[in-house]
Write the structure tokens for this entry.
Amino acid sequence: MTGYALANTKRSWYIPNLHVYGTIGWGEFEYLLAENVNSVVSVLFDSVSIGDNSQQISFRDLIDHKGNKLPDTLTNPRVIIKQKSDSTAFIVGDESNFGFKIVRSEQSTKTVQVDLYIVEMGD
């Protein structure tokens, strides 16, 4: 089977002009807090995520170039980004059956416009 024929056996969607506003977070920050209340000292150790500004995209919220809504879930989807400017965008982590996280480069001060090609790979 040729690559073209194999690609045509999969469900796929072309999503033009998606605006990416999310940015990469700073990650996990661990801290230690000591508190003295009425001569009782308590110590707390915790971690918190700082600046998680990634943009969560659900497949059900997308509309393809023909005006069709995408299904709520896709089996083993892959998202390919077509950059439309010098500013870049990229997928964070792995795509799930329900959606994906996308972010723009930190150097970009405005939203980044991209096109998406989404392919359902199946089982």
Summary: The chain has a mean pLDDT of 86.
